[in-house]
Amino acid sequence: DQRRRDPLRELQDRQLLRVVAQRRGPVEHPRAFALGLVRREQQVRLIILGTGPEKNLLRDLTQKLGLSEDVELSGYVANPYQYMARAAALVSSSLYEALASGIIEALALGTPVIATDCPYGPREILKDGKFGDLVPVGNDAAMAASILRVLAGHTKPMDSAWLEQFSEATAMQSYLEILSISTANCCREDK
After folding, report:
1. CA–CA dist 85, 189 (Å, integer)
2. Torsion of CA 81, 83, 84, 87, to 10 degrees
3. According to the model, what pLDDT value does residue 182 have?
4. Three-class SS string for the chain?
5. Model confidence over 58-70: pLDDT tens digits?
């Protein structure tokens, strides 16, 4: 009787190294997650949250590479933050981004971030690499080396004041300023 793994329970095991990853763009190469390179050095578990058209391709790829025991395709989860908060790192191997909210959320949870230096997002959010590791897009060796550094405890401290720019209140204030609407006029309660 094979029971389905409970990845959240596995994340509670302090002996288990773990990585939560996100990716935007096609899976086009067998080394897409640099996991094989990391696995040569130490045991690590990759948990991929969410659903998408490439789930079967990812499953086939992990089987082909002999990494099925190291990769969990969890699908949709209602509360991804419980995974992010317990992860050793969030790895974003995106080819492109817009506003990389997963990176912002991981930083807010205190989870180290490793991201590809893809157009639009990671470099700005990580302040040119000050608050997380940036690696070249498609460079699996650099991604693996960065993952191993973070797993060895070499992480970058986060300044919570830096994250304030991504808060709901700051975003709302920026919109109001762009629209030239005074908060004194817009948000007061008339009795």
Report:
1. 38
2. 160
3. 64
4. CCCCCCHHHHHHCCCCCEEEEECCCCCCCCCCCCHHHHHHHCCCEEEEEECCCCHHHHHHHHHHCCCHHHEEEEECCCCCHHHHHHCCCEEECCCCCCCCHHHHHHHHCCCCEEEECCCCCHHHHCCCCCCCEEECCCCHHHHHHHHHHHHCCCCCCCCHHHHHHHCHHHHHHHHHHHCCCCHHHHCCCCC
5. 888 888 888 888 8
* pLDDT band of 2, cuts 50, 70, 90: very low
Adjacent-strand bridge partners of 69: none
Least reliable range by pLDDT among 2-6, 10-14, 91-95, 117-121: 10-14
Rg, Å, the chain Cα set = 19
Residue type, 12: Q
Distance (Å, whole) CA 122 – CA 186: 33
Q: Which of 27-31, 60-64, 132-136, 171-175 reaches the highest mean pLDDT? A: 132-136
CA dihedral 136, 128, 21, 66 (to 10 degrees): 30
Q: At 174, list the tokens.
A: 């920026």
Sorted by sequence, the CB contacts under 8 Å of residue 85 that are 6+ apart come out as 109, 110, 111
